[in-house]
Description:
Elements: H1 9-32, H2 34-55, H3 67-87
Amino acid sequence: MLHIVDAPKWQLLGGFLGVIVISTIVLTIPHLGVTLVFLSIISGQIFISMIIDHFGFLDVPKIPMDWRRIFGFIMMVIGLAFISRSIY
């Protein structure tokens, strides 16, 4: 039987952060809408993945940022801005 005190601390942190993310999603969707919330989440994940790839964090092969990746991310942010402007 696995006891919670025997689990690695990073696994416990992942569970705690997961609860925060899900709670935030549930609380913000009624105010911002599903599209804006999930596009924000996806944009954040893509931004962090670009940083991880560029610097080679977490022992992944380095993939330098180029104009196509940056342009794609900028287009997502512009789409996010258009969606958020239509709400307010």
